[in-house]
Amino acid sequence: MQQQRVVANRYSLLAELGRGAMGVVWRAQDQVLGRAVALKELHPPQGIAAEERNVLEERMLREARTAGRLNHPAVVTVYDIVRENDRTYLAMELVDALDLASIVQRHGPRDSTWMANVALQVLGALETAHQAGIVHRDVKPSNIMVRPDGAVKLTDFGIAQAMDDPRLTHNGGIVGSPAYMSPDRLHGFEASPASDLWALGVTMAHAVEGVSPFERTSTASTLHAVMNEPPVLRRASPGLAEVIRGFLTVDPARRLTAPQARHMLTAISQGATQVSLPHNNNGGKKKGTALKVGAVVVGIALLAGAAFAGYQVLKPKETTNAGPNTSTNQTQENSTEWTDPTALPVGAPLPSRRIATFGRGGDVPEWNLSGTQCAKDFLTQGSPVRQDVPCNGPHGIQLFSAATPLWDKPKDIAYPGTQWLADFAKNYCTEQFKVIEPKIKEPIGFTGLVPTQKEWEAYNDAAAPGRQEVLCVLWKQDRSPLAGSLVN
């Protein structure tokens, strides 16, 4: 029988809980105090540079110091830190729970009331940290543990930063998870309590909608989505959607504050479906932190940003529907030029790079896909797309991107017109296709779908809400089935 491994003559390793590129987390028994603990072992791969190893060790030390300063039931308690045989170990509270990302993956989108209760506890942990002058910098579903009884623990303060501390990155880079970074951080501002709240808003959207709202096929497209594409909230209750949108306000000076969010989340957790957004009096904040939505340089070129970010600040044209362009011939499947909507007989396949309408009265009268979901049948004139199928099995089409061009305007804004939306979709879908095109080994067709005026105006319809997005869809040019996802 293999002898049980003991660390520092105190911690008996019982079972491996998780393993990553930089270390292992063990279930261990503290032989001195007789309690179960989680023991995090830093174990970088062979050949790692000494400077990088020092940064990793400093992060572990920072996690211990940071958590040790915080006294809140939703913060994981750190008990001890030891070094033995050139390895560093962190003994911490053992939390028998799944993280929020795993819960969503295994059990699907979360109920809004349930999520409000979880968010309240995370918010409490963040408020405690912020009051101590600490920003977490990596709030995301995988760092939120939820026990079966509903108790929450916010973990991984390894890259947390005291507001008066030097940053850990030796090269000045931004540390964190791109899909959860706020626009102000991408603009180069330091992490702040407001950026933690943005990340909490993204996390809430992920949990209630079932998909990460800004996660895309590449870092460039992910960062572009953060800057230009607010999440589509179709499952969240009206009240929770207000909280999420409040957290995801681009200008940090106008972002929902923790006290405001606590007031709203408490009401939702008690059964309220709608809550009012409290008045945000931020007169004492610097106006210079206001951000303009648009293309942004964040160390890499945002592939889709320059091509269409200008549409974000254009005023919509006349609200009358631009109507089909009957003088334009139907595009050939291998054409590289876009054509505008043309009249097609019912049942005819919709060609590549020919803008089509979706929703009430559109070429595709009903559309129920979101994220990067797939559907069995191909796009044909007059046929709805009601149900998704697994992308890892045979399917006809895949939604590979979507954008809300007038997301920062009131949702009752007048319809900008088919042609305005078509121009937006041509630029947007072309640039998004360029992101995935290098990975594709066979001829692919793609097009943009824009909402009809009736679909647009039904956005606030409680029974059957409309959509104000443009959608980018792809398929094989020979109309044979796709065998797997092209964007995941």
TrEMBL record:
Binding-site residues, ATP: 40
One Pfam family this sequence matches: Pkinase
Region (Disordered): 317-346
Transferase among keywords: yes
Domain Protein kinase: 11-266
Membrane-crossing residue ranges in chain numbering: 293-314
Keyword Cell division: no
Domain of life: Bacteria
InterPro entries: Kinase-like_dom_sf, Prot_kinase_dom, Protein_kinase_ATP_BS, Ser/Thr_kinase_AS
GO molecular function: protein serine/threonine kinase activity
Enzyme class, broadest EC rank: transferase
Keywords, sorted A to Z: ATP-binding, Kinase, Membrane, Nucleotide-binding, Serine/threonine-protein kinase, Transferase, Transmembrane, Transmembrane helix
EC number(s) on file: 2.7.11.1
Biased composition (Low complexity): 325-337
PANTHER family xrefs: MITOGEN-ACTIVATED PROTEIN KINASE KINASE KINASE 20-RELATED, SERINE_THREONINE-PROTEIN KINASE NEKL-3
Official protein name in the record: non-specific serine/threonine protein kinase
Organism for this UniProt entry: Lentzea pudingi
Source taxonomy: Bacteria, Bacillati, Actinomycetota, Actinomycetes, Pseudonocardiales
